[in-house]
Amino acid sequence: AIFERLLSSRNNKEDVLNHRWNLEGHQLGVISVDIDHRGAVAASSALDSHIRLWDLETGKQMKSIEGVPVDTWTVRFSPDGHFLASGSHTGQVNIFGVESGKRESSLDTRGKFILSIAFSPDGKQLATGATDGIVNLFDITTGKLLHTLEGHAMPIRSLTFSPDSQLLATASDDGHIKIYEVQHANLGATISAHKSWVLSLDFSPDNKHFVSSSSDKTVKIWDSAMRQCVHTFTEHTDQVWQVTYNEPGSKIVSVSDDKSLIIYDCPV
Length: 268
Known about the structure:
Layout: H1 2-8, E1 10-11, E2 16-17, E3 30-35, E4 41-46, E5 50-55, E6 60-66, E7 75-77, E8 83-87, E9 92-97, E10 103-108, E11 114-119, E12 125-130, E13 135-139, E14 145-149, E15 156-161, E16 167-172, E17 176-181, E18 186-192, E19 198-203, E20 209-214, E21 219-223, E22 228-233, E23 240-245, E24 251-256, E25 261-265
Antiparallel strand pairs: 1-2, 3-4, 4-5, 5-6, 7-8, 8-9, 9-10, 11-12, 12-13, 13-14, 15-16, 16-17, 17-18, 19-20, 20-21, 21-22, 23-24, 24-25
């Protein structure tokens, strides 16, 4: 929804995005940002060990959640927007209530620094990716660790579930993407995806494709069934940290260290 709002703010005559808000409040560098399913609330985490919630209609801060130092890294909203998950350097995932601003529960991977987190779209599971290349899959309701996946040997920068919650895709500094069947944690495919770190992944809403970005400066679209690259974008001149589809799946947006945000028409 927030992506659609960005598109609707474009100046069609000049084909640019109009600036809307400066969200100010963090005292140190911002690490991660996520938007709830309504496109109404943003969450940000920073090196100041705070998570801040922002009203995107007004640009005002709604709430500040104080965490333990280095315990507020990547943040992700649950699919219903009621909870916020944050990974930590100790391998613990803290689950905060959005309304209460309090820590409601925690999940312990007993592992390394958690770099990436993803909720399954059906809200039943949560996956984490760590600096040691380990992926852990939890049952949200019980907090039970369901599976530990050891397919990567280097940090997991991104992971994402397919829209039907049946597949989990993981992206690593080893340049590979791995596709797992969630129910039994079976490895379905290993894709030699990029010449360098794979930094971000996202499935298309129709589940037919997924997109990846890398420090090799490229954005690639993959056929979900064939696990083959069907298109490569090379517009960026530096590493591409984030890539995502809009809700209809008609456009892709990427952001890079070259200080540019690019919106692509989906070619497939």
